[in-house]
Input
Amino acid sequence: MTNQKKGRVFSGARPTGRQHLGNYLGAIQNYIALQEDYECLYCIVDLHALTTVETTQNLIQNVYEMALDWLAAGIDPEKSIVFVQSHVPQVTELHTYLSMVTPMGKLTDLPTFKEKVRQHPQNVNYGLLGYPVLMAADILLYKADTVPVGIDQAPHIEFARETVRSFNYRYNTNVLVEPQMKATEVPKVLGIDGQAKMSKSLNNHIELAATPEETKARVMQMVTDPQRVRRSDPGNPDICNVFSLHKVFSSAEEVEHINVECRRAGIGCVQCKNLLAQNMNAHLSPFRARRAEIAAHPDNVWDILHTGRDRARKIAEQTITEVRLAIGLPS
Ligand code: SF4
Output
């Protein structure tokens, strides 16, 4: 990494295993682009996952599959630090220090906390409440100055910035750095139901690593313009999720052709979906080949994560030393 980079980026994602199109278009593509200009730390946040997962049975496999997809998609471990959150335990130490300057009311007021309580009424644990503090610790531990997030995450970044101010004021220091939010336009990728955001838990997703046949089967299940009942009915591509994905995977000419022909019933939905599946498979083919290559040596994936751990720890240890000194803890 050179000092010509624009700054240091931190971004974390929960270990959800094999990634789907929503993950790819919403986050991974952006990760790949950012690593050209920034010093990037990409973290698989397994500790955050503990706040809501019911079982950790598949946790290790999910970490592995996610890392595999990231690497196959083009996140380059030579350019970026790719690592697992719990491999750098200093984050939990910083979380403790930050929690001392965090008023309870701030946490209970966050809309995301209220939403989680609604989603997991049986398991409102302390970790859930302290989640933004751990998230702040993730960013501040590595002195990341840039955090790429969707607009819905803005309150968490503001929370991290306020935490920096509280900490630095309380201990009369400037050791922690206020991160800036890099607002990222996260495209809302709908699932095959055409209603909800693509998500594994809703089983409306298309996995990047699916076979061409599986991909085609999922595309053929996609909900189209609900008003178009018969083949002879004109359709409206503007409200059709198949068309949205054509805009990503098909050529400009094909998109224009569908846009015109759909409206005058010149093309049927089966034909339209067949073309989408074909283009999607062609687009994902290099990714899938690279994934198979990497998956032939699973130890290499863990080696990359362990190298990332060592590089991340080096930064973390330095920050924790400075933080302890600023607080006045014994050495
Ligand atoms: Fe959607 Fe294509 Fe059918 Fe038009 S032809 S409604 S764009 S699937």
Remarks:
- The two ends are 31 Å apart (CA to CA).
- The chain has a mean pLDDT of 94.
